Amino acid sequence: MGILAIVIVFAIIAWIDLLPLIRKRSWKGIAALLFFFIPALVLAVLWNYKIQVPSTLLTLGEALKSMGISYKP
Amino acid sequence: MRIDKGRISGKQFMFAIACFIQSSGLLTSFVSGVTKQDSWLVILLGSIFSLLMLWVYRRLMIVFPDKNLLEIFEETYGKVIGKILGVLYLFFFFTLSALNLIDLGNFTKLTATRETPMVVLILMCIVVAAIAVRGGIDLVGKYSTAFSVVAVVIVIISTLLVVYQMDFENFLPSFRLPIIKYIQGTHIVTAIPFGELVVFLMIHPNVKQSNKEITKNLFIGFILGAITVFMVVLRDIAVLGNIMDVFTVPSLVTLHLANFGVSMSRIEILFAIILIILLFFKIVILYYVSVIAMAHLFKTKAYKRLVLSAGAFIVFYSMTLYPSGIAHSTSGQETIPFLWTVYEFIIPLVTIIVAKFKKNPKKQEA
Amino acid sequence: MKKLVKIVLLLGCFPFLLLLSGCWDNHELDTLFIVTGIGLDKSEENNEDMNIALQIGKPHSESGGSEESGASSATIIMETKAKTMLEGLNELNRNSSRTMLLPHNQVLILGEDLAKEGIESRIDWFLRSQEARLEVLIMVAEGEAKEVLSAQLQQDQISGMYISRMMQDLSRISDNYEFRMFDFMSRLRDETSSPMAPIISVTGEDDKKGLKIDGLAVFKNDKMIGQLTADEMISYIWSMGSVKRCNITSEHEKGSAVFNIEKLNTKRKMEIKSDGNLKVVFEVDANVEIGELSGFDGLQGQELAATLSQVAEDSIQQRMQDTFKKAQSLNADIYEFGVSMKRRHPDEWEKMKENWDEVFSHIELDIQVKVKLPTTGKIVEPLEIGEGNDEN
């Protein structure tokens, strides 16, 4: 059910935005769109199957903490 | 290269800044958890430090009136480093968008729609936001004036409604926390929410304003916003007293207690709606800035086509950021301020110094 | 092609109309039970559980039908047994045709036995849940909470609303009549203050019952350890700040008087004595009117006024002192002296806070009352029955 919704939504996005870009042959635009479209799709699928994705902020936070740059609670 | 040809007036710019800051009246728990009854002091100090940061932004806006932040980087540091910085800031903008989206989702879930799943709430918000962003900056700018004024009115009314419940002794004992807490508090306030104003450096090329007006708009907008947040914190401390730091959203509790007469109680939902609208506005700005940055990095003018994909990315990215509200607050209090300060203060400061240097190669430092 | 896009977009708007209006969260009115009062009692069968009673206001269409005098009530009581509030609620929701709607709840009544046992483990839900409001009044029932909730009152159909209105009236007299969950929570969190809750009791019989506030329950942390009588409650209210309208009856060797206290303000000063003990000074300022007089023969004018002021002052002082002694005997800081110390003398507070119980029991209370008697009512002196003057 969830995966179906995801496929539909991303297909709609592609239809609305990607097709016109391909028609205009603006390669840079397509690159930009895909740069986010693909990761979004991947994250969406991962979310649907409840797979945990490491959080950028938490990892950065840990890195800072290990360097001693943080406030103690 | 101007990606979005829209223009907004200086006044709209000013109110956009004000709205942006005012929406943080909801998120005072970051600070109140650390400095409790002295939180008002920390907001004051944070405002003063932010004025310093604003001065740096002003310089940048005056020296580069037609260039947005990423363009400024490319001009000052050359193409390679400029692009690298651009990518770093892209991450920053998207993360800010995602974080504020979670806040909006949480707040809405807490007040209005308790059972709707988070994903649905966020999706709906993003779709509406996407429509706004696709409309370009002039669509976005038009709403700022009204929202900002409404926010001020709301804060004043809510304060008046609870005036009889205020106990000014709740501010005592003052100034007795360890100094590090005040430093931490001020840092948090400066980095989140005041420092997020750095994103306006992506918008200023679209604003019709002279150099003198830049100063006026920046500072008045900021002060308007900061005063609103200050009043909110003052009000919350006075009303809630020693249990303020227990609540996840103290302002909401204060509003719960605001009632006049039996029939007019529970009107806090009205206030909640306005606050939701403010936060939504902030998200639209952040979302817009993210998309513009994206378009710029890939050197394409077709930013409107990127809006939906960026939106989808923000939605699912935001779901990965924090497993719980507690992780969110802890992170916000302990590590994020340091990270953000780099983006909001250090890099802009270095940039303006380097830019000054480049423009005056004869003025060598002894 | 463009037309097709437009149609699709239009159709696409409909799900949004539905979702944005919050229909995921919709509750239809006739699928709800509106809770107006919650009562928690200790369960006789086992120590872990408590008896939970919810007072539900019946929707009008149902109670309007059978209006026999006094026989049908506008409320129903739903009960269950559970260890915690949330479990109880879940059970009730599961086993009834409707969902409980809690935000209109007016009052939380704790059974006396449960209060004495300690309630911290029972009330977490009230603090944490979004649906339970912090303005809910918290009270202790003399006896069983369920009795209070099921009492069929003459004056009002729904006792929950009645109680709430009663407290509202009282708070017009003084802001210090604030006994909401919020205030309870604030005192509970503070290390030294004693939370308090009004004691409510049922009077009368059968369907001519009434509810009365009979004093204040005094808690130490989360356990009820004693109570103040109704009179002591009034003196306590005087001690805490400002009061607008009150009555006080005083007896004196020359006569008795009933005074109307127009306005009373108490300011407190904390002083640290040389021996390390604490002295608190209450400076009481009152505007008093004469309500009723009898006796006081022979006194007139200035002398009468002076005597009456003195009588009033002594009365007020005596009562406040008595109540304080009661608090001291219970070793309960009901006046939030600890909080005053923390705010005004934080350094000394650091030293005292560990042994606050000790310190509290040695507190000396000095009450200085100043009464102003602006008018004497319609008549100047009490009616004296003249002697002599018989005409026949």
Per-chain topology:
The complex is a heterotrimer of chains A (about 70), B (about 375) and C (about 400).
Chain A: H1 2-24, H2 27-48, H3 56-66
Helix pairs in contact in A: 1-2
Chain B: E1 8-9, H1 10-22, H2 29-35, H3 39-63, H4 69-111, H5 118-134, H6 137-142, H7 144-161, H8 179-191, E2 207-208, H9 211-240, H10 250-257, H11 268-297, H12 307-321, H13 325-334, H14 336-359
Chain C: H1 2-20, E1 32-42, E2 50-57, H2 60-63, E3 75-82, H3 85-94, E4 99-101, E5 107-111, H4 112-117, H5 124-128, E6 137-141, H6 145-150, H7 159-173, H8 181-189, E7 196-203, E8 210-220, E9 223-228, H9 230-239, E10 242-243, E11 246-252, E12 255-272, E13 278-295, H10 301-330, H11 337-344, H12 346-352, H13 356-361, E14 364-372
Parallel strand pairs in C: 1-4, 1-5, 5-6, 6-7, 13-14
Antiparallel strand pairs in C: 1-2, 2-3, 7-8, 8-9, 10-12, 11-12, 12-13
Helix pairs in contact in C: 9-10, 11-12
Give a description of the structure.
The complex is a heterotrimer of chains A (73), B (366) and C (392). Chain A has 73 residues and is mostly helical. Chain A has three helices and no strands. Chain A has helices at 2-24, 27-48, 56-66. Chain A starts with a helix and ends in a 7-residue tail after the last helix. In chain A, 25% of the residues are buried. Helix content of chain B is 71%, strand content 1%. Chain B is built from 14 helices and two strands, in the order E-H-H-H-H-H-H-H-H-E-H-H-H-H-H-H. A two-stranded parallel sheet of chain B has the order 1-2. In chain C, helix 9 (230-239) crosses helix 10 and helix 11 (337-344) crosses helix 12. In chain C, strands 1, 2, 3, 4, 5, 6, 7, 8 and 9 form a nine-stranded mixed β-sheet that branches. In chain C, strands 10, 11, 12, 13 and 14 form a five-stranded mixed β-sheet that branches. Chains in contact: A-B, B-C. Chain A binds chain B through residues 9-10, 13, 16-18, 20-21, 24, 26, 28-29, 31-37, 39-41, 43-44, 47, 52-58, 60-61, 64-65, 69-73, and chain B through 91, 95, 180, 184, 187, 294-295, 297-300, 302, 305-310, 312-313, 315-317, 319-323, 327, 330-331, 333-339.
